[in-house]
């Protein structure tokens, strides 16, 4: 249900309130998208300014992704139970506060803690966005609204790195990298003021119950896996790290057992395990995780390679990524509208092949040109990679949902979004092994950082190519055609009981 307009309000006033509410929630989505991409470009500046180690740099992005993933489904259910407007405003308040803490942090560990808080608050805020849209707009208007959201997603993907590069390069008021976080303060405060005034309250009539035990078990298992994986290199790979990673398997086993118990008890598990009986969905979750791992590895090592290895400025590195972003946006639009309806999963498979080809071309160019490589020479592999990514990201969710029963489409969609973030967090954790562990300390000591980072970058990119090979193999289990996907997605977005699907 939606809060009614004030008594005596005219239809025009009510309509204006709806569109102002939309502007607020779209701004929140934009903030989250930009904050995911804006940080990578500032990593070298953060390292130099506050003395962050390489493992801390990983946690700055990994901590956000992990907290975001762990809280997504629970955040959606909190909105269903206590009111989407209330939880949205709580999340936005916390996100704005966490952004301020990130901007004033003088210690690298405090920055990591603030980023974890920021990711947790995003997990409260983001799942409410499309749920609020469904409660505010009638069905015949949602197509136009979702089109606007698509534009916001594209704008966020393109503008994040450029905005981060500009804010870092300009060094506003001598604050170095800090404005990339502090810019959220005026935006967040304005959003809170407008949100309180224009967003109507709504709840789900029969919301699922919370599964806090499931959240604790899943998050604990991931931390037991990711912490030693991220810190192991700097600590000399101690025995307790291997034991901790082995113990994570037992925790994940306990998580599965508890989820089965939770299903029998009240039908409100964090993860609907019965979904994995659908082979195409199980394979699709594997695709989501593997694709997230590839992206998590690539985007971090790419930034470090350009800025620390090649010594480029943040602005030069940010501008280098423009061909990639444009290619992703262009291919995404064509894939959904023209290609997937005709060719089905072959489009996604072509995307995986294209991305892998771009990665290998990048490996060759990096080795061939060495430290003398120029941004224009990187354009070709980046465009090939971007086209491949665009063919995957836009239709992937619909394809994975194609054979899922409609009554479970909401839970399935929420799980897809969670596993995307988890894959990204795992990829960021693997950077210690596939990149930092390969840095030639002797070459760096002799002043040849460019050569050392170039070699480590190429090693990491081979890992990316290998993971994309896994993605390609798993895609053969996806449905050949995804005609049913559109209906499943529509149901996921419209089901009041499963509004965690709104995280899509």
Automatic annotation (TrEMBL):
Q: Enumerate the subcellular locations listed in this protein's record, separating them with semicolons.
A: Cell membrane
Where would you say this protein principally sits, based on its record? Answer: membrane
Spell out the GO cellular component terms annotated for this protein, sorted alphabetically and separated by semicolons. plasma membrane
Where does the Major facilitator superfamily (MFS) profile domain start and stop, copy by copy? 21-483
Q: Name one GO biological process term.
A: response to antibiotic
Which Pfam family is one of those matched by this entry? MFS_1
The question of whether Transmembrane helix is a record keyword is answered with yes
Membrane topology of this protein:
Multi-pass membrane protein
UniProt KW Chaperone keyword: no
Question: InterPro entries from the xrefs?
Answer: EmrB-like, MFS, MFS_dom, MFS_trans_sf
Alphabetically sorted, this entry's keywords are: Antibiotic resistance, Cell membrane, Membrane, Transmembrane, Transmembrane helix, Transport
**Protein name (Swiss-Prot/TrEMBL):** EmrB/QacA subfamily drug resistance transporter
């Amino acid at each position: 249900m939606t809060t009614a307009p004030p008594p005596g309000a005219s239809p025009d006033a009510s309509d204006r309130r709806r569109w102002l509410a939309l502007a607020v929630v779209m701004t929140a989505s934009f903030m989250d998208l930009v904050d995911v991409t804006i940080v990578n470009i500032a990593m070298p500046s953060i390292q130099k300014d506050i003395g962050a180690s390489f493992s801390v740099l990983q946690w700055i992005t990994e901590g956000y992704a992990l907290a975001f993933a762990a809280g997504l489904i629970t955040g959606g259910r909190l909105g269903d139970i206590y009111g989407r407007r209330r939880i949205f405003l709580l999340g936005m308040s916390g996100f704005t506060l966490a952004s301020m803490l990130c901007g004033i942090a003088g210690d690298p560990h405090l920055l990591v803690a603030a980023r974890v808080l920021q990711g947790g608050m995003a997990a409260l805020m983001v799942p409410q966005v499309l749920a609020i849209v469904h409660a505010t707009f009638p069905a015949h208007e949602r197509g136009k609204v979702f089109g606007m959201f698509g534009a916001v997603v594209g704008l966020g993907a393109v503008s994040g790195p450029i905005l981060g590069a500009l804010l870092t390069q300009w060094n506003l008021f001598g604050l170095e990298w800090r404005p990339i976080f502090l810019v959220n303060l005026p935006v967040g405060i304005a959003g809170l003021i407008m949100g309180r005034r224009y967003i109507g309250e709504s709840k789900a009539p029969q919301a699922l119950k919370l599964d806090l035990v499931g959240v604790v078990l899943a998050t604990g298992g991931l931390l037991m896996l990711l912490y030693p994986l991220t810190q192991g290199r700097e600590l000399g790979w101690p025995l307790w790290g291997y034991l901790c990673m082995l113990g994570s398997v037992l925790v994940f086993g306990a998580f599965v057992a508890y989820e089965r118990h939770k299903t029998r008890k009240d039908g409100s598990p964090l993860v609907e395990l019965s979904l994995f009986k659908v082979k195409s969905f199980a394979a699709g979750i594997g695709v989501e995780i593997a694709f997230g791992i590839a992206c998590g590895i690539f985007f971090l090592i790419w930034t470090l390679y350009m800025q620390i290895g090649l010594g480029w400025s943040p602005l030069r590195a940010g501008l280098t990524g423009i061909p990639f972003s444009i290619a992703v946006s262009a291919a995404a639009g064509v894939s959904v509208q023209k290609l997937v309806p005709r060719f089905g999963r072959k489009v996604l498979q072509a995307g995986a092949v294209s991305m892998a080809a771009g990665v290998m071309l990048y490996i060759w160019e990096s080795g061939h040109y060495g430290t003398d490589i120029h941004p224009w020479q990187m354009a070709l592999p980046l465009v090939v990679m971007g086209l491949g990514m665009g063919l995957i990201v836009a239709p992937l969710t619909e394809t994975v949902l194609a054979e899922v029963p409609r009554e479970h489409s909401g839970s399935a969609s929420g799980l897809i979004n969670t596993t995307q973030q988890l894959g990204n967090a795992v990829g960021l954790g693997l950077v210690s092994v596939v990149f930092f562990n390969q840095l030639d300390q002797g070459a760096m000591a002799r002043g040849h950082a460019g050569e050392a980072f170039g070699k480590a970058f190429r090693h990491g990119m081979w890992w990316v190519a290998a993971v994309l090979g896994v993605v390609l193999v798993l895609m053969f289990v996806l449905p050949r055609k995804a005609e049913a996907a559109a209906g499943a997605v529509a149901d996921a977005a419209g089901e009041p009981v499963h509004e965690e699907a709104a995280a899509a």
